[in-house]
Amino acid sequence: YHVEQIGMERDSPLDVKTVARISNQINYQNKSANHGAGLGAYMIIGGWDSNNGSQVFSCTAGGNMIATKWTTDGSGSTYIWGFMDNGFKENMTREECEEFVTAAITLAMSTDSSSGGCVRLNTVNADGIHRKLVKPDELVPVYGELATTTRHGHVGSSGGMML
Fold it and tell me: What is the pLDDT of residue 147?
């Protein structure tokens, strides 16, 4: 809402850094919301604009906004920081980047049971937003996990209960 409103007032789309600032400001200004519990959100704002190209910002619940080449968050993120540090390289093609991110998320899922079972990619570049779903049976096992199976129309993986 705020981004669209300001964009209309300026009569032009906002750059990524401005969107990150607005998001960060809303988050920080509402740190006492929810009966004192606050929003408590760590946000990743990324995008592409014609002035600065591709950009990523880490916005913390404490009000920090950090421009970075890459970042990660979520319950499985602690398991993949080294993988990300080691594997990230500048100027990857879209395909290389999507393969790298898919491998990172797959690694997180193999060590953290709360990280989900599929990979949803949203790649943003000068051509727009490209969405891709990588289904569980398309993911390459990292540590020899049991293969995903389908029974009675339900998709599940090892450890799950299937009737």
Answer: 56
pLDDT tens for 8-20 read 998 888 999 999 9
pTM of the model: 0.78
> pLDDT tens digits, residue range 124-133?
999 999 999 9
87 Cβ contact list (under 8 Å, min separation 6): 100, 103, 104
97 contacts 105 by C-beta, under 8 angstroms: no
**Could you give the 3-state DSSP secondary structure of residue 48?**
strand
Strand, helix or coil for residue 139: coil
> Could you give the dihedral angle defined by the CA atoms of residues 63, 65, 70 and 72, in that order, rounded to the nearest 10 degrees?
10
**Residue-by-residue DSSP string for 24-66:** HHHHHHTTTTTTTT-----EEEEEEETTTEEEEEEE-TTS-EE
Continuous segment of H or E residues that includes residue 26:
helix 16-29
